[in-house]
Specification:
Blueprint lengths: L5 H5 L6 E7 L5 E6 L10 E6 L3 H10 L5 E6 L2 H8 L5 E4 L8 H12 L6 E5 L6 H7 L3 E4 L4 H15 L1
Parallel strand pairs: 3-4, 3-5, 5-6, 6-7
Antiparallel strand pairs: 1-2
């Protein structure tokens, strides 16, 4: 049993609590853990995931399917450049795309569009090999696939904080 207005409370900016979504037998919702002051007014991080491999797309979308992220997906470099104009807080960019490399996409965003602020993370199985080249063209960080979620979250949040 659920209190009819409980779901509406979840999105309220007036309640400094997280909801557990667990209920006792009477239908009352349990509240837990007061949010730290720094998290109270944070909007979700809008992330563009640029990945051409279907299994990696599914993993990435599952990884970022949480309230702290709004994830969008691009499958090609051209699609990433087109979607870029929608305004993202961070771009997670595979290096091996079917139409152009991730390095070319990053170069386009940094030099042709002129955006030096939006964090771009090279996220690839070969990003450590190409780390110096990636950093030279404007990537903010390189991460090897697979990366633990906690480490990925930490890097993304740190870069987004620095950029804002």
């Amino acid at each position: 049993m659920m209190i009819p207005h409980a779901k509406n409370l979840r999105n309220s900016s007036y309640l400094p609590v997280n909801f557990d979504d667990s209920y006792d037998k009477s239908g009352l919702i349990f509240l837990h853990k007061v949010r730290p002051e720094s998290e109270k007014s944070l909007a979700p991080i809008k992330i563009l995931i640029v990945e051409d491999m279907e299994i990696c797309q599914k993993i990435a979308l599952l990884t970022f399917n949480q309230p702290t992220y709004l994830a969008d997906l691009a499958v090609t470099g051209e699609e990433a450049i087109t979607k870029y104009s929608q305004g993202y807080d961070v771009i997670l960019l595979d290096l091996g795309l079917p139409d152009m490399s991730g390095i070319e996409v990053c170069t386009h965003i940094r030099k042709k569009i002129g955006d030096t602020k939006t964090p771009i993370i090279a996220y690839s199985a070969i990003s450590d090999i190409l780390r110096e080249e990636c950093l030279a063209v404007g990537f903010n960080e390189t991460l090897m696939k697979p990366t633990e979620k906690k480490a990925l979250d930490s890097v993304i949040k740190e870069l987004v904080e620095k950029a804002s």
